[in-house]
Specification:
By secondary structure, the protein is an alpha/beta fold. It has three domains: about 20-85; about 115-175, no CATH class; about 175-360, von Willebrand factor, type A domain (Rossmann fold), CATH 3.40.50.410. It has ten helices and twelve strands. The protein has helices spanning about 20-30, 35-50, 60-70, 90-100, 145-155, 195-215, 250-260, 295-310, 325-340, 350-360, and strands at about 75, 85, 115-130, 165-175, 175-185, 220-225, 230, 265-275, 280-285, 285-290, 315-320, 340-345. The strands form four sheets. The protein has a six-stranded mixed sheet with strand order 7-6-5-8-11-12, with helices on both faces. Strand 1 (about 75) and strand 2 form a beta hairpin. Helix 1 crosses helix 2 (about 35-50), helix 6 runs parallel beside helix 10 and helix 7 (about 250-260) runs parallel beside helix 8. It starts with 17 loop residues before the first helix and ends in a 6-residue tail after the last helix.
Length: about 375
């Protein structure tokens, strides 16, 4: 009697080599180990021993050798006993993979520009035409339509063209944006068994890759805040870790405002990823802390800065990775004070929310 014979299902990604399949998993492990190559390889080896990831034709040792040969990792020259260090190529790969993973629905857009709904002086043509006015760029003149108008208005026998015959293409106004991304690295970002810092820095890597590749005329500055705040570079993102800090939102906002004051772009914005309410202030060399949060003294300073940013036309978008009722109440007050926006996001939806908000903020603010 005919029947079916069942075997263990081993999923395979079509068209991908064993190296590519392991490299994808290796990248995910690097996000969680904050760029520690040796730790990530150790985890990968354990996973291989338990689940036979590499099969019989490819080993972890061969994978490590390929990583070296392809320039993703390098032996520590000064102290080989420390193992491998990530290279700049690996850092770039992490950012690109984050972009592909989080923003896989990106529409192709013209690099280096933000398009608004308002027409004006720009360099992307619409389907609309308008009469030529003094000051319009000559390269925007529609020659075919202008010649047609000249022929209709003056005839063929005495052909001539005047200013009244000229029409130009309407264009979309292009604006440049300066963004400061604030990332909370207080201890609460890893409390209660939930890793919130890994999705936050993965989103930051994706956003940085998006801006540098698709909107190179925009600027992105990244700052982290705990008890204090400081600026980091894009290349530092994979190695970002949470510290034993409180949440000094005031310090983060003050640094963000100082950075944006130096930017010449007319459009400025702050994006803040956090999971907690402000719990810390700094006066001189001393800290004023209240771990319970919602301290009147701290909240007053924080809301005051929100109002100050509003007066400077710097909107703040808060991405909250928590839904505590008291916290939501504070974020609502903060958002109203700044006339900004707030998103209450799960860890999985953080990237989508941040990307959609960045895309929607492309129009020029008056």
């Amino acid at each position: 009697m005919l029947g079916y014979r069942f075997s263990k299902f081993i999923p395979q990604e079509e068209g991908k080599t064993p190296f590519e399949q392991l490299f994808k998993l290796f990248n995910q492990l690097l996000y969680h180990t904050s760029g520690n190559v040796s730790e990530a390889l150790s985890w990968l080896t354990q996973l291989d021993q338990e689940h036979n990831l590499t099969g019989d034709d490819y080993s972890i040792a061969e994978f490590i050798k390929d990583l070296e040969d392809k320039g993703y990792i390098a032996q520590d020259v000064q102290n080989p006993s420390l193992g491998f260090n990530p290279t700049s190529r690996l850092e770039l790969s992490l950012r690109r993979n984050a972009l592909d993973e989080i923003f896989d629905q990106l529409n192709k857009s013209k690099p280096g520009n933000h398009v608004t709904k308002a027409t004006g002086k720009g360099d992307e043509f619409t389907s609309e035409l308008k009469p030529y006015e003094f000051g319009d760029a000559l390269d925007k003149i529609s020659m075919s339509e202008s010649l047609k108008n000249a022929q209709i208005n003056h005839g063929i026998s005495e052909f001539m063209m005047t200013q009244d015959d000229l029409v130009v293409h309407e264009t979309f106004y292009k604006s440049q944006t300066s963004t400061v991304l604030m990332i909370d690295i207080s201890h609460s970002m890893i409390l209660y068994g939930e890793d919130r810092i890994t999705p936050a820095k993965k989103v930051a890597m994706a956003l940085s890759e998006l801006i540098t590749t698709r909107y190179p005329k925009d600027t992105l500055d990244i700052i982290v805040f705990g008890n204090d705040s400081w600026q980091i570079e894009i290349k530092d993102l994979p190695y970002l870790q949470v510290g034993p800090y409180h949440t000094n939102t005031v310090a983060g906002l003050e640094l963000a405002m100082n950075i944006l004051r130096k930017r010449q772009n007319p459009n400025k914005q702050i994006m803040m990823i956090t999971d907690g309410k402000p719990t810390c202030l700094k006066k001189g060399k001393k800290y004023y802390k209240n771990s319970f949060g919602l301290d009147r003294k701290i909240l007053t300073r924080t809301l005051g800065l929100a109002v100050k940013c509003r007066k400077l036309q710097i909107p703040i978008t808060t991405f909250m990775i928590a839904r505590d009722p008291y916290l939501v109440q504070f974020v609502d007050k903060f958002t109203k004070a700044n006339n900004g926006k707030a998103f209450y996001s799960s860890l999985s939806g953080l990237g989508e929310f941040l990307f959609m908000d960045y895309k929607e903020n492309k129009k020029k603010r008056r």
